[in-house]
Amino acid sequence: MVDTKQTSVYNAGVPELKLLYTRHDIEVRIKQLASRISDDYNGRSPLVIGVLKGAVIFLADLVREIELPLEIDFIGMSSYGSDTTTCGQAVVTSNPTAALDGRDIIIVEDIVDTGICLKALREYLASRHPASVRVCALLDKPSRRRVPVAVDYAGFEIPDKFVVGYGLDCAQRYRNLPAIYTLEDNDVREY
Ligand code: 5GP
Ligand code: MG
Ligand code: MG
């Protein structure tokens, strides 16, 4: 179901957006992920850490479907590169407030692309001695991987396209789109 009205509102004078996953597609998939997480962590209280800013919308919807006494925290990560790609290095820019030692941590990411951010994040977390670390990413682009990282709970595997909406940005815009779109403008990225 293509919501043309929704696209046109945000599309005036900017690159073409093509609907990839509707709000409904996302809702259905989130319920499945949340049910698996609820089963896997039965009896435990995981610490769900969202990676700012892209994972905020996904995390907000995901945690409301998880039936566990979980806690929420956030971490800031910054990668050197253009607005649309990472170019080899990622650093932590703001720390979670919770103590991490001994916790069952679920990292919530918007998308895993080259894997560079996630690898840096895993190394950072490992140095804080959690009991376990798993990753839940709404989107996974395995064809772009440059470092091997595992995604334990992946929403959708997508092809090598730049996507926006539902938390994902291009130059800080489009995060508030309720669905996920591909950005059909080859000039703005290095693909
Ligand atoms: P990675 O380190 O795996 O290459 O990607 C880290 C970050 O790059 C993601 O968390 C996301 O912020 C950004 N990124 C990668 N691919 C896309 C994409 O298709 N769209 C958007 N908006 N951001 C992306
Ligand atoms: Mg991210
Ligand atoms: Mg971004």
From TrEMBL:
What is its cofactor?
A: Mg(2+)
Tell me what reaction this enzyme catalyses: IMP + diphosphate = hypoxanthine + 5-phospho-alpha-D-ribose 1-diphosphate; GMP + diphosphate = guanine + 5-phospho-alpha-D-ribose 1-diphosphate
Among the GO molecular function terms of this UniProt record, one is:
glycosyltransferase activity
Supply the alphabetized keyword list. Cytoplasm, Glycosyltransferase, Magnesium, Metal-binding, Nucleotide-binding, Purine salvage, Transferase
Q: Where is the Phosphoribosyltransferase domain?
A: 21-169
Q: What is its EC number?
A: 2.4.2.8
Compartments annotated for it: namely: Cytoplasm
Q: Write down the SUPFAM superfamilies for this protein, in alphabetical order.
A: PRTase-like
Keyword Nucleotide-binding present in the record's keywords: the answer is: yes
The top EC class, named as a word, is: transferase
Keyword Cytoplasm in record: yes
What pathway does this protein act in?
A: Purine metabolism; GMP biosynthesis via salvage pathway; GMP from guanine: step 1/1; Purine metabolism; IMP biosynthesis via salvage pathway; IMP from hypoxanthine: step 1/1
- What Pfam families does this protein's entry cite? Pribosyltran
Q: Which family does it belong to?
A: Belongs to the purine/pyrimidine phosphoribosyltransferase family.
Please identify the protein, giving its name as recorded.
Hypoxanthine phosphoribosyltransferase
User: Corresponding gene?
Assistant: hpt
